[in-house]
Amino acid sequence: MKFSYITEKKQLENIIPILKAEKYLYLDTEVAVKNFKNIDFFSDKVRLIQIGTEKDIFVIDIFKIGKENINILKPILEEKGLIGHNLKFDIKFLKTNFDIFPKIVFDTMIASQIISEGKDTKHSLLAVSKREADLDLDKSQQKSPWHLTDLLEEQIKYAANDIEALRQIFPSLKEKLNQMKTPHKATGETKEIFGVENPVAAVEFTFIPNLALIELKGMPIDKNLLDKMLKQLSSEYQSLYIDFFRKYGIDPFSPQKVANWLTNKLKLKLPKTEKGSISSQDKYLRKYENKPEVQKLIEIRTKKKLLDKVKELNEYITPDLEDENTGRIRSLYRQIGAPTGRMSSSKPNLQNIPPVLRKLFRPAKNYSMIVADYSQIELRIAAEYTKDQVMINAFKQGLDLHRFTASLITGKDYEDITKEERQMAKAINFGLIYGISPRSLMEYASSSYGVEISLKEAQIFHEKFFEHYKGFKKWHEETKEKLKNHREIEVVSLLGRRMKVMKFTDAVNYPIQATGSDMLKMAVNFFGKLKKDLDAYIVNLVHDEIIVEAKEDIKEEAKAILEESMKKAGEILLKNVPIKYEIEIVTNWSEK
DNA sequence: TACGGTAGCTCG
DNA sequence: GTACGAGCTACCGTAC
């Protein structure tokens, strides 16, 4: 493998024409990370930028050349296509260290995830190189000291070698993406630059720089309120704990002791867990809520959960440089965190914040917050997916679908449906997109909606449902038939994301959930493109919800663009069902 | 003392 | 026959 080690400004200038002649480049970076457990994208320094063409590899030493002389690369890295592995990482560092922000990318990690079709496969550069090119990549220098004044020969060679690996895996990954059967072909930059025709890959690749920006921006949080809440919850929790222990002599957080105490002393009948121990889940305790012991137990658990979540948020708070009352929480997102293409969020998880804590999140001074979400998106997708005419018509007429389902099942007029009947229908509607069985419907209706029905009744509701929604019936029957004949089948989202499944419940749920995640990512991409240089940034994404922080004086403009983005994404995927969304300018996340 | 699995709970 | 996905904490048994 031949490569050039670039350590002087003059050398860098000399390679510019070579890079300019290319349509796309291979890219990797090495960063001098102080703490690998907690990578700091703002203070850790980029040491090397490796750029490859099909012929050359240049290992550019930033420390030797000087950060201020890297500007010459900016137009190249921002305008050329870039091929790399987990480019969100590199893009974040290029942005913070050099204000370089690439936009046109082919990511070999994301490509590998897409072609894996949801199977549990490893996607490190090491694993992908082995799989796609039978290459045994040496990763021993990954965490070597990249801050050394003079890098070791093996470090420089290692850096160049990653580019060689990218070169070898790119053609095979591209070929596999293009060979996947999809409902339509991609157009746009990803197609023009890299020749990628797979529409899922096009959406995912375009999404990468947008997600990098979301992570860098971070969710704004009210520092003073957080502090206040932390103190208040702590003291409330402590007194609850002390009271509980004094009264009952039991540690409320020892599952075994609590379970024994509840069954022996209080004579509660509780179900077993999977491993055979006694379960004291809140949902089983709910029917004993009239007992003060049970009530206290639930109360103390609830308080502790809130306290823990606030503590967790508090650990990740960093200052907002322009507003001393605001902190910023920069979560990490896994772009394809679930087999369906849904994202996941961690450190901290900003996708499972309870409503009572959402008021902590509010925009920085002189900024507004815009919260938008798709309404009943999965049911709308399911209607489109199954082409169920009855459900499509209900949506077209703008009916409340839960109420409508209730009227179909009970035979009563739409207007006469009671609250309880609507709740029951809601359980059925949701159960439907998860591949319901009558037994689980019964349990679900009870634990989630507080509606008690017998198994017999659940069976009747189940039948009635399919009697009216014939499109669903057909879809479920066909899916069951396919699974009878094949151990594993493929399902596909409306964009063309393919997933292998073995279980009926996965087979009916995955394509719906996947289409929802396609839609959200497309909406984010449109927003990134349409907003231009408006001071408006997405600060969190929660499956069907987008949260934007926008400068106060342009909030209406930002809101209009966000709305247009969500509408466009929705209308591309749903041709027969209208989409609906809520969008509002708020002072904090909990207003809606 | 560190690690991994399980249970329980939060969100969509 | 099974309701879908994720992350985080605490507990608890096992390995060192």
From TrEMBL:
PROSITE patterns: DNA_POLYMERASE_A. It catalyses: DNA(n) + a 2'-deoxyribonucleoside 5'-triphosphate = DNA(n+1) + diphosphate. CDD domains: DNA_pol_A_Aquificae_like. This is DNA polymerase I. One of its GO terms (biological process) is double-strand break repair. The keyword DNA-binding applies. InterPro entries: 3'-5'_exonuclease_dom, DNA-dir_DNA_pol_A_CS, DNA-dir_DNA_pol_A_palm_dom, DNA/RNA_pol_sf, DNA_polymerase_A, RNaseH-like_sf, RNaseH_sf. It comes from Hydrogenothermus marinus. SMART domains: 35EXOc, POLAc. Belongs to the DNA polymerase type-A family. Residues 357-554 form the DNA-directed DNA polymerase family A palm domain.
